[in-house]
Amino acid sequence: MSEPIPPPEAKRRDFRNFFQSVGYALEGFRAALKHEPSFREDLLFMAVLTPLAVILPVNAVSTAVMIFSLFLIVIAELLNSAIEWTIDDISLAKRPFAKRAKDMGSAAVFLAYINCIVVWGVILYSNWNRIATLEFLKWPPPFLP
């Protein structure tokens, strides 16, 4: 008969644990930057569109939703990469369930892109009368003396 499994240790909850968690998150971010071309492309996409979302003449909530839709792409890409690396670490053999899991991760990224396109499209369409005049590009802006 096998030995009983001891209960897991309780995790400590203090600032050292918080900083350690932040360190792990930064390591993951650096690993994605180094090893994932798709992640780098998504960050570039986000870096180009975030300033545009900020300068467009839409309300603050619309700007926040536009930026969040960009973050959602990056988040989905990170999760997809984590799934793919985990499956590849277990075995590089072709297995139908592994393929299905990888395809589902890719589908999540695809849906995040579709979501971004729809969000941006709806917001741009509903504010097109202000955007088309290009008034927001005139310098100096009206709030400066």
TrEMBL record:
The chain crosses the membrane at residues 108-128. Substrate binds at residues 77, 106. Mn(2+), Zn(2+), Cd(2+) and Co(2+) support activity to lesser extents. The active site is at 77 (proton acceptor). ATP binds at residues 24, 36, 84, 102-103. It comes from the Bacteria. Keywords: ATP-binding, Cell inner membrane, Cell membrane, Kinase, Lipid biosynthesis, Lipid metabolism, Magnesium, Membrane, Metal-binding, Nucleotide-binding, Phospholipid biosynthesis, Phospholipid metabolism, Transferase, Transmembrane, Transmembrane helix. Its main location: membrane. It is an enzyme of class 2 (transferase). Belongs to the bacterial diacylglycerol kinase family. This is Diacylglycerol kinase. The lineage of its organism: Bacteria, Pseudomonadati, Verrucomicrobiota, Opitutia, Opitutales. The gene is dgkA.
